[in-house]
Amino acid sequence: MKFKDKIVIVTGASSGIGESIAEAFATEGANVITVARRSNLLVEKVSNSKGKLFPFKADLTKDNEVEKLIASVVNKFGKVDILVNNAGIALGGKIDDFSMKDFDDMFNLNIRGLYFCTKLVIPIMKKQKSGIIINISSGSGKKGSPTQSAYGASKAAVIKMSESIAEELKEYKIKVHTVCPGMVAVKNHYPNLKKEKILQPSDVADLTIFLAKLPQRVNIPEVTIVPYYPIHMLRD
User: Fold this and answer.
1) Domain segments of the chain: what residues?
2) 7-233 domain in CATH 3.40.50.300?
3) For tag attachment on the chain, is the N or C end more exposed, with fewer CB atoms within 10 Å?
4) Any catalytic annotation for residue 115?
């Protein structure tokens, strides 16, 4: 198995895309630290999984909890091979109605939490002279749309941050990839669309695994994955 004995951290792993990514890496033989604020869901998934999943409850908007997460992983396993920054929230609304509290909450998780997780694993990966960081952005970070000004801005920031960090880390053989999914069939999202014709969390997980398997000589800095069908064919 490609990832046997690899140590993988997946944030936002209690459901949806993060859950699928964690399970995909575990299926490939990895030791996967599944990070989420809802530990009860993680315990259930660990007990039902055939792979090696290790739940860790943490709020990534709190620096001390992020520090505890990374320190615990290093103390237990001695390394971090792959970090998948998936944790995030998607809040929409027209700019004149959108609250600044929602704005701050979203940026604190989508950007600051992601940045701090990455910041703490980089010294570990530098010492190893190897590592992969995969940041889950969004199609909303590439193309503006009504009610998505704040969310789109947070996801665009993920893309640009990833580009800059990637340039910093090349000499240490650390890769940084960004995945920008379009519409994904996750709970309570897109209630008026035909769920079977939009992306599934497993589709994003498969792409994430593909990126992590690339040889060192191959780099895909950013990739967009979208539904095949046009929007008019997706409505119920």
Assistant:
1) 7-233
2) no
3) C
4) no
